[in-house]
Inverse folding.
């Protein structure tokens, strides 16, 4: 999956990425995604209060312009990018689960015969007696990866919710206490 990085993020950090586009192979690469998401969070939500503060020009007009700039150029584009990453991961995981369900039928219903016909000459040969055990082991590992990824995704969605709530609280304090910033964000995405 490829995501276009917002301009403000490219300017802020060379450490975050080397190119304007980030190419992540799969949501099953949780370590890489966690690192990337934490960097995105750090440069927006974690430093939001600092980005909004400017002791040199404390006038209300300047502060409101600063809020507008930070919201439109930093915060909302990165929120959207993170939402898109997690939405894509959710889609990928459901697709991966369907693939697992198709390729690994319920192992308990498999009845491995000891002898089967092989080829056109109807020769009888012994089957591998460990086939069922190996299939169970392979299935267990595959579903374990899926479950770990699903749990990671749920944790990331929880982190997003908490960070957005905290950021909205900061925006209400610093910018305008009467604006519903989350509603404004969702409205801006349409």
């Amino acid at each position: 999956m490829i995501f276009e990085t917002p301009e403000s993020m490219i300017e802020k950090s060379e450490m975050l990425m080397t190119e304007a586009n980030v190419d992540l192979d799969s949501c099953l690469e949780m370590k890489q995604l966690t690192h990337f998401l934490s960097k995105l969070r750090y440069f927006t939500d974690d430093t939001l209060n600092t980005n909004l503060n400017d002791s040199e020009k404390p006038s209300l007009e300047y502060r409101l312009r600063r809020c507008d700039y930070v919201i439109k150029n930093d915060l909302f584009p990165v929120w959207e990018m993170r939402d898109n990453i997690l939405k894509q991961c959710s889609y990928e995981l459901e697709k991966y689960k369907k693939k697992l369900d198709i390729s690994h039928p319920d192992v308990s219903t498999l009845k491995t015969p000891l002898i089967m016909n092989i080829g056109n000459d109807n020769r009888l040969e012994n089957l591998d007696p460990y086939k069922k055990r190996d299939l169970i082991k392979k299935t267990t590992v595959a579903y374990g990866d899926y479950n770990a990824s699903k749990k990671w995704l749920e944790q990331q969605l929880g982190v997003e919710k908490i960070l957005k709530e905290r950021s909205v609280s900061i925006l209400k304090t610093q910018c305008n206490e009467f604006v519903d910033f989350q509603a404004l964000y969702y409205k801006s995405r349409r």
